From TrEMBL:
Protein source organism: Lysinibacillus antri
Family to which the UniProt record says this protein belongs: Belongs to the class I-like SAM-binding methyltransferase superfamily. Cation-dependent O-methyltransferase family.
GO molecular function terms listed in the Swiss-Prot or TrEMBL record: magnesium ion binding; O-methyltransferase activity; S-adenosylmethionine-dependent methyltransferase activity; tRNA (uridine) methyltransferase activity
Any one GO biological process: tRNA methylation
Organismal lineage: Bacteria, Bacillati, Bacillota, Bacilli, Bacillales
Assembly description: Homodimer.
List of residues binding S-adenosyl-L-methionine: 34, 64, 81, 109-110, 128
Function statement: Catalyzes the methylation of 5-hydroxyuridine (ho5U) to form 5-methoxyuridine (mo5U) at position 34 in tRNAs.
UniProt protein name: tRNA 5-hydroxyuridine methyltransferase
Length: 210
């Protein structure tokens, strides 16, 4: 860990017992959740934006959804997860927080969910799911965001693999990394979005719809 990362980690705000329990569960069960400095940064950006509704692609155990809900007491969140076991754990954890009452968990593959049955529009979308499918997620759900809305996308570094030449990436992950790099090039040059990369956590991409 770089010195700057250590310093940033030292500035992370304390969490309540439920969040700490979720962090422990995620670590012990190898469930990927957003890094603490990154979720703090995301929440601060959301506080500035003040969305009234957020769509999350990739619930996992509900950690980021709950963190966003706690940061935005007037916001409703819809979150999609395809793993049934994680859906059940998310519902378990969210039921133990008053902020969980504003979160709706949908079980299903985000690429197969009927968009018309979710909601007409969202002020923000947070994508943190299958990295090799980011462009497909973006193309399917970005129409739900009106002009002035924002899409937040995590794990753009992919634990450093995005920095490597594709030949240096483990063979089983090459397609995913190639897709992730192609998506990055595509969105950074998209005429309908102003996109900025934040080098925090595992890399956070922010796309403002024009």
């Amino acid at each position: 860990m770089e010195f700057s990362d250590v310093y940033i980690e030292s500035l992370v705000q304390p969490r309540d017992e439920l969040l700490m329990e979720m962090e422990t569960y995620a670590k012990e069960n190898h469930v990927p959740i957003m890094q603490l400095p990154a979720i703090d940064a995301l929440n601060q950006l959301l506080r500035i934006q003040k969305p009234s509704s957020i769509l999350e692609i990739g619930t996992a155990i509900g950690y980021s959804a709950l963190r966003m809900s706690l940061a935005l007491p007037n916001c409703k969140i819809v979150t999609i997860e395809r793993d049934l076991e994680r859906v059940e754990m998310a519902k378990h954890f969210l039921s133990r927080s008053q902020a969980g009452n504003r979160i709706t968990v949908i079980e299903g593959d985000a690429l197969e969910v009927d968009v018309e049955k979710i909601q007409s529009t969202f002020d923000a979308i947070f994508i943190d799911a299958a990295k090799g499918q980011y462009q497909r997620f973006f193309e399917k759900y970005s129409p739900l965001v009106p002009s002035g809305g924002i899409l937040y996308i995590d794990n753009m570094y992919m634990h450093g693999l995005s920095d490597l030449d594709i030949k240096e990436v483990p063979r089983r992950k090459r397609t995913m990394i190639r897709n992730l790099k192609n998506f990055t090039d595509w969105i950074m040059n998209h005429p309908d979005y102003d996109s900025t990369f934040f080098p925090i956590g595992d890399g956070l991409l922010i796309c403002l719809k024009r």
